[in-house]
């Protein structure tokens, strides 16, 4: 007689099915996956000025980003500068009749107000686009410090040469500047600290505001890449010029062309590093003598007649720096755009 194979698996005598829930016990259900949110990062090749064009992007986001950037810029600057003016009034440095003077405190708080636009710009960029702040620095998702060092190696000597040339022809540097005497005074060390510590952040803030979030918001509108990019460069350069409040034609041309140059540098390198370096070096060199001047009002006088053709020199320095750094980066194979579909993995 055949014996049953005790080692073989025997069928379950009870039919398969869900285990009935016990009294007082809730049945367990696996939650169904919800709809996936659109990616805030590009999923197709894009350069720096078009980096906002992602599945999550919409034109209204860009328009509101530009509006809030403008409102935030003027709000922060006015509030911070008002604090500086209040300090001058309380300490007796100025009175109601001399509020138009540029005092060390007013200069410091104006500089600080501009610098504070940097975190504000990063937050607005994040809020309206969903991209983390690191993606505003470059298409690689971060501030590339190696590019900064390369840019400094090229830019710093050129701007030093520019400074030496302007010192040889002081009368061409602007109205009244040829007769200014310099020396150490009571505000020198305070002003020196402001120039050295705050100026790099002030320059970076303007680049992140105008060439970063502002240019991207405009450049990502419309289907035509070239047209949208050109419009973005022109509009942000005009806004950059207006923000400096100049009425001299030479200064108007200088600020506009400086904005165009920084935009081109950003587009060609795929990030804000080169523009930040050139802007910071330009401002540091321009303000190097400021802590030793007896009076600051003339330094920031941008009325008609204060500019000169010599303002072309920093533009030439910037153009040469951009050309060399771009050539250097291309030899090194530095990323200047999102290279392929889905390249950025995280927001």
TrEMBL record:
Biased composition (Pro residues): 10-21, 30-43
InterPro entries: CAAX_protease, Rce1/LyrA-like_dom
Region spans: Disordered: 1-45
All residue ranges annotated as the CAAX prenyl protease 2/Lysostaphin resistance protein A-like domain in the record: 189-285
GO biological process entries: CAAX-box protein maturation; proteolysis
Transmembrane segments: 63-87, 107-128, 148-169, 189-205, 226-246, 252-269, 276-294, 306-328
Keyword Membrane: yes
Keyword hit for Membrane: yes
Source taxon at top rank: Bacteria
Record's protein name: CPBP family intramembrane metalloprotease domain-containing protein
């Amino acid at each position: 007689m055949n014996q049953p194979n005790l080692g073989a698996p025997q069928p379950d005598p009870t039919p398969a099915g869900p285990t009935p829930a016990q009294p007082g016990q809730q049945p367990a259900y696996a939650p169904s996956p919800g709809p996936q949110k659109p990616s805030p990062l590009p999923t197709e090749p894009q350069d720096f000025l078009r980096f906002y064009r992602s599945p999550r992007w919409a034109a209204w986001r860009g328009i509101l980003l530009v509006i809030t950037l403008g409102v935030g810029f003027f709000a922060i600057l006015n509030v911070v500068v008002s604090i500086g003016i209040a300090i001058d009034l309380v300490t007796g440095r100025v009175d109601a009749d001399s509020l138009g003077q540029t005092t060390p405190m007013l200069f410091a708080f104006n500089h600080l107000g501009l610098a504070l636009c940097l975190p504000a710009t990063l937050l607005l960029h994040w809020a309206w686009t969903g991209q983390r702040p690191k993606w505003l620095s470059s298409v690689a998702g971060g501030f590339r410090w190696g590019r900064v060092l390369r840019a400094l190696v090229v830019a710093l000597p050129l701007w030093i040469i520019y400074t030496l040339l302007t010192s040889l022809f002081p009368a061409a540097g602007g109205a009244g500047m040829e007769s200014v005497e310099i020396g150490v005074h009571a505000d020198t060390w305070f002003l020196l600290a402001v120039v050295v510590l705050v100026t790099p952040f002030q320059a970076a803030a303007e680049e992140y505001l105008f060439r970063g979030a502002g240019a991207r918001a405009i450049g990502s509108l419309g289907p035509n890449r070239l047209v949208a990019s050109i419009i973005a460069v022109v509009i942000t350069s005009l806004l950059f010029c207006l923000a400096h409040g100049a009425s001299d034609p030479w200064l108007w041309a200088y600020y506009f062309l400086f904005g165009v140059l920084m935009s081109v540098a950003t587009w060609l390198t795929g990030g804000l590093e080169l523009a930040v370096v050139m802007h910071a070096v330009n401002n540091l060199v321009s303000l190097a003598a400021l802590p030793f001047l007896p009076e600051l009002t003339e330094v920031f006088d941008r009325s008609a007649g204060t500019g000169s053709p010599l303002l072309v020199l920093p533009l030439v320095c910037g153009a040469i720096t951009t050309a060399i750094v771009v050539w250097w980066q291309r030899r090194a194979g530095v990323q200047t755009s999102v290279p392929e579909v889905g390249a950025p993995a995280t927001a």
